[in-house]
Design goal:
Number of helices: 5
Number of strands: 17
Strand content: 35-45%
Shape: globular
Structural class: alpha+beta
Distance between the termini: 28 Å
Radius of gyration: 21 Å
Amino acid sequence: MLTAGYQGGGASGVIFTGNVKEWRKGRETPVDTYLDVIAADGDRAYNYAVVNKTLEAGHTNRDALNVITQSLAEHGVDVGHIADLGQTVFPRARVMFGMARDYLRTLCRSTNTLWTIQNEKLQIVEEKRALPGSAYVLNSETGLIGMPEQTMGGIQARCLLNPDIQVSGQVQIDQSSVSKAMMSSIDINQDVDRYFLPGIAADGMYKVLYMSMIGDTRGPQWYCDLTLQSLNPNDSAVFGPLTNGLTNAP
């Protein structure tokens, strides 16, 4: 478990929970040493969780999910937020045998949801919705650095490191603070902006698709880099291949 934040009343909390895959120590200079740790969140469950179960006729998506989560729990991953998976009842029995992650992808494809493992918990949210709870307001007074930019890969923003911001969570950024992408006349004529540029939310509400944290106790960098998508269902979504792997594809 890794905690980080700011002293003097700033946000502080857990930013990573997982298991160590490998580590090594070395020396940069005759007086400076380092410890390099590679750790992963939910890595054991992702790579080793296997399901082996037959569901009876009349099962639902929730029944399939229960089989999957039982397998994940054996490798340390608990259940977090689970979106509504519908009320579909399947008339035939189903044999489930294989990797739990593959069955999760199939389940989420069929229910228009996305799954991630965050701090050793399985989170399933609807594609155009975020985790429940209030949105974290980002502006210059709460840690927003520079101006967020509209790109084909999503709205890119940087803020001070904040454990209250999480993947699939909500943030709010004023529409006027987002720098709109500049498109060439050729791109505009080909409707590239409409089909490949994710929308800028008029109400400022965004879902966090991806985030990376940068910290250096002996340097100035202590940031969160965010990839965001508008929560307005009428806005264009982030183009699938550009979502940093956050899709239901293998």
